[in-house]
Amino acid sequence: MATRQVYWNVEGHHWLYLFFIIALAIFVYGVYKRVKLWKLGQPDNRWKDVWPGIKDVIVYTFAHKRILKDAYPGLMHAGIFYGFLFLAFATAIITLQADFALNIFHGWLYLFIKVTANLFGLAALIGIVVAAYRRYIQRPDRLDNKPDDAITLVLLFTILLTGFVIQGARIAVVPDPWAGYAFVGQWMSIPLKAMLNEAQLLSLHVFLWWLHLALAMAFIAYFPYSKLFHVLLGPLNQFFRNRGPIGIPEPIDFEDESLETFGKSQLREFSWKALFNTDVCLRCGRCQDNCPAYLSGKHLNPKRIIQDMRVLMEETGAAVQAQNKVLAQAAGQEAAAASESEETEEWTGRALIGEVIPEDDLWACTTCRSCEQQCPVFVEHVDKTIDMRRNLVLMETRFPAEAQLAFKNMENNGNPWGIGWTTRADFITGLGVKTFEEDPTAEYLYWPGCSGAFDARNQKVSASLVKLLQAAGVHFAILGNEEKCCGDSARKLGNEYLFYSLATENIEVMNNYGVKKIITQCPHCYNFLKNEYPQLGGNFEVIHHTVFLLDLVKSGKLKLSNADKKTVTYHDSCYLGRYNQIYEQPRELLKAVGLDIKEMAHTGEKSFCCGAGGGRMWLEEHEGQRINEMRTDEAIAVKPDYVGTACPFCLTMFADGIAAREVGEELKALDVAEILEKAL
Amino acid sequence: MNIVVFIKQTFDTEAKIVLDGNGKIDANGVNLIINPYDEFAIEEGIRLKEKFGGEVTVVSMGGPRAQEAIRTALAMGIDKGILVNDPEVDNTDEYGRAQILAKAIAQVPYDVILVGRIAIDDGASQIAVRLAEALSIPSVSSVLKLEVAGTQATATREIDGGTETIEVSFPAVITAQKGLNEPRYPSVAGIMKAKKKPLQTLTLADLGLSAGDLSPKMIINEYSLPTPRQGGRKLAGDAAQAANELAKLLREEAKVL
Amino acid sequence: MAKGIMIIVEQRNLQIRKVSLELLSQARKIADATGEPVVAVVLGQGIDELAATVAASGADKVILIDDAKLAEYTTGAYTSVLNKLIRKEEPQAVLIGNTAVGKDLAPRLAQRLGVGLASDCTGMEADSNSFLTFKRPIYAGKAFAHLTSNVRPIMATIRPNTFPVAAPDAARQAEVVKEAAEIDAADLVAILKEVAIAASKRPELTEANIIVSGGRGMKGPENYNILEDLADVVGAAVGASRAAVDSGWKEHKFQVGQTGKTVAPTLYIACGISGAIQHLAGMGSSKFIVAINKDPEANIFNVADYGIVGDLFEVVPLLTEEFKKLVNE
């Protein structure tokens, strides 16, 4: 039967358990130190959904779903990951056989282990070589190098290499009828046999065996002190991640008069999960590589924010420990301490906002969530940005001056431009649409949003949409002058108080009319009404116009001819795509009227923000390139006739970008509804 | 330093102006805001307090809704508020209101009184200067920059085509022009605190005034609305004709040149 | 018995301001209709030579108060002198231009006299009952108040450019009276230290009466000189749209719009600006809007009172010439 002698040529292997216990102790101490750091944060119950958590670990760790989306580093990682997975499996089986008297290391399992350990070990070895090549020769911008990176690579590399040489030495000495299964070991044995005699081979084997063992123990001991920790933390973070509607900030209860601080300005105000996040991040840089702010030359870098918070967490941890020591001493000295303890200064350390994270970085974020979408281990960046913006707005009132105008306009007239609220209904009613007051039995509420109601360019979109809805015989009405800004920009700019007042007023109006179903034409309104209003008691069925129109087309209620033979590139709005996974419906609509779709370099989940999200629509862009112009360049590059959008902000940004690039003759930015209307 | 800021609650700048059944301006459904120029006065008051210490009091006249304006000022950082709330106030003109205000302000010690240079509703720009006269103290109008040293202030004020610098001793009235500062946005912490700050409401009787003392000097015969503007007119002809026509229209029809 | 229409004539460096001539012209018309004389008061130092101009512009009586303390306007001194003069002369009405001086002086004077004041009027008519009625814009011109007073004198400040200036009649004779300046010490507490007339004729954007603004259609920073030429003819400020600022043609401080300055001039001339909502948010409350754009579909035409569809590089220089003609008239 196929097998081999375990611990061949090795005496006293039981010592390894002693070493193992020492390594484990170092490991446990390391974990304990980190756990203590995480516990500096606030409690947050993340055990709510266990099964979805386990499923996520299977999908995102074991099936590598997100990791492989970036093919080159993804495959590199897969080689290392699956390599070590199978090697760990092999080692476990051997341990069971040798020391737990489980006689299983023979027959097909033996051969299976032999071949997989060789195959995957080789894959891991290649993965590590590629990783080193990428990191130190190719040097992509998104990687920053620390000693830990090199140590880890060398450690893994030597563990693998020594393993194969050990195997080769054994095969060279003991004829193995199944050596072909251990093909790497067999290759190794050929030069070894040629160069060394049997005695030399035996000493080499035993030396490397112990070296291999020492390295493996070093691996265990080093694990929680290094990036290796991600092997454990990554899956845990996938398990603990936010599920349900994406990117919703925590509500603040403004009725609670005991609240004294709003937003977060100190590390310890964040939940343990936020601090945990900073350890989970292993600086792969996918976030940075997909951040429109970073790519357009702003100082903001999502990776750096997380890493800088990590450093602050360590500083805070050290200070808290030192302080506890002082307190303990003081308690020991009792009376004398009472007078002195007042003199011991409260440790404040570096300020999270300003010193650790520059304020400009917080305002540069478009909340496009590409960073989070690309992160293989589900680090959550955007909610932290919003929490800190809240502090700046609600407590410090320090924010870009332009935001103040938008805030005041929203307060006084319920729209960011400050156009008189009594004129909101004018344009839409001019299209023959009734208000809910006039037509309370309407099945759908049509929510044009501020842009659709006030902005001349987006009014054209409203006109197209209304025509399409009318043609399909949809019974709908608007709130008219009773509609207010949904609160998206206010909330994302950190003005939770303003959001709260806008949202509660909107909800009250809609509940009074008994609104059940809402059609929106702005993804920001869509996301807020659908996902965020439930926090404040507004529960409606909300449908984005592209989804609604597709249903109308599919059910035959909306009959469209083929539009002109044109090509279009569809720009995924962040709040429709990444926030709500609506990628296909707008494209299907465009195909339904016979248009050819050309995809831009960044598309779907990797779509590149237009630059207007997160309230950036109302802020000036002083640093670096303009994001909308970069995105327009991507559209120009595929030479379409139209850029199709499904968001008024994106439409505005593209219109500006097209004007800036002076390509208005060749390229038109149109909403999907406008394109459809041409085929009516 | 004792600082008094007089503020007025006005219609929102975007408010649609209509006349009610009696031919008066209809305030129904209109958003009310703090007169934007008064915000400069509030901000300057808070800054003076932050620099020199003391107390800032905001004084206003108006109906119960004016409390909102005072609360907003308190949220920005003003210490306390006084509201003269009496229906008789509506029957007074600038002359009477200056008297009311002078009486109300006499309730608190003051070194400097800050007021917006104009209220965007009636656009009269009288009260602050009349108040100074009623209190027999100097005033500086349309101030762009204010420097205070002890009881002495140096104010740079706007004049047609330039500025002038005036030295004045306290107490004095200063009217704020756009450019004096950038008013702060109230923090939510400030809004919460403002709910607990003192706000005193006074009637004319409390001030020892009766309607008789305040009978208006001006008579408003009527209000009217402008004839609706003609929709945008595109001028015909070649460039030279159009330019000529435009200049003529700006002078004769729009009367802006 | 109160008599006459008193015009407080404003002069700076011995130049009579245009609004004072406008008031004299209009007062002359009312005087001719009602029989009330026009009394002009001039304050300053070394002002004798102004009497003839004031007479030629319509005054029946010219009162000159010449004193070193009146050389520059100060609230206290002017109020002190005029209060005494008005109490002595007892005019039916006192009118002054709604200038920086008028806005500061009139309310102080009215309060001291215990009379009403109609400020910033854009209309004035003779009235058989109450002598004069005034029309003044309120709510930024979205409504008008029509008012008068039974208390004498009726005081008003009149917005410049409300009335035309009549051709001066050099043959007109007026009684010229010199009064001594009696200034109460209590009125001299505020001290004028310095007057700085802006070296640049171009005012601050937010304070300008007229703004000439250029957008993407300007094509480059070198072309702004044609806007500056136009602006300088009428003392306007020069602004820019975000597109022009983003292109680096103008500094951000010149930007008009949502993320720039919010302005509300009497006249806004938009050249090569398409009229995106972000721009309109910053200038939509301008009283009159002129658009010059080669795209007839540009949104700016939806808000403009007057529009010219054409090449701004052709239109603007022509407009500059037209404005020059008007100003020189």
From TrEMBL, chain A:
One of its GO terms (molecular function) is 4 iron, 4 sulfur cluster binding. Keywords: 4Fe-4S, Cell membrane, Iron, Iron-sulfur, Membrane, Metal-binding, Oxidoreductase, Transmembrane, Transmembrane helix. The keyword 4Fe-4S applies. It is found in: Cell membrane. It is a multi-pass membrane protein. PANTHER family: IRON-SULFUR-BINDING OXIDOREDUCTASE FADF-RELATED, IRON-SULFUR-BINDING OXIDOREDUCTASE FADF-RELATED-RELATED. InterPro entries: 4Fe4S_Fe-S-bd (IPR017896), 4Fe4S_Fe_S_CS (IPR017900), Cys_rich_dom (IPR004017), HdrC_iron-sulfur_subunit (IPR051460), Helical_ferredxn (IPR009051), NarG-like_domain (IPR023234), NarG-like_sf (IPR036197). It comes from Desulfosporosinus lacus DSM 15449. The chain crosses the membrane at residues 15-32, 75-96, 108-133, 153-172, 178-195, 207-225. This is Fe-S oxidoreductase. Pfam families: CCG, Fer4_8, Nitrate_red_gam. Residues 272-303, 354-385 form the 4Fe-4S ferredoxin-type domain. GO terms for cellular component: plasma membrane. Its main location: membrane. Signal peptide: none annotated. The keyword Zinc does not apply.
TrEMBL record, chain B:
Gene3D superfamilies: HUPs. This is Electron transfer flavoprotein subunit beta. It comes from Desulfosporosinus lacus DSM 15449. It comes from the Bacteria. Its cofactor is AMP. One of its GO terms (molecular function) is electron transfer activity. Pfam families: ETF. Heterodimer of an alpha and a beta subunit.
From TrEMBL, chain C:
One of its GO terms (biological process) is fatty acid beta-oxidation using acyl-CoA dehydrogenase. Residues 5-195 form the Electron transfer flavoprotein alpha/beta-subunit N-terminal domain. FAD binds at residues 216, 241-242, 255-259, 272-279, 293. Keywords: Electron transport, FAD, Flavoprotein, Transport. The keyword Electron transport applies. Its cofactor is FAD. PROSITE patterns: ETF_ALPHA. SUPFAM superfamilies: Adenine nucleotide alpha hydrolases-like, DHS-like NAD/FAD-binding domain. Binds 1 FAD per dimer. The keyword Transport applies. GO terms for molecular function: electron transfer activity; flavin adenine dinucleotide binding. Belongs to the ETF alpha-subunit/FixB family. This is Electron transfer flavoprotein alpha subunit apoprotein. It comes from Desulfosporosinus lacus DSM 15449.
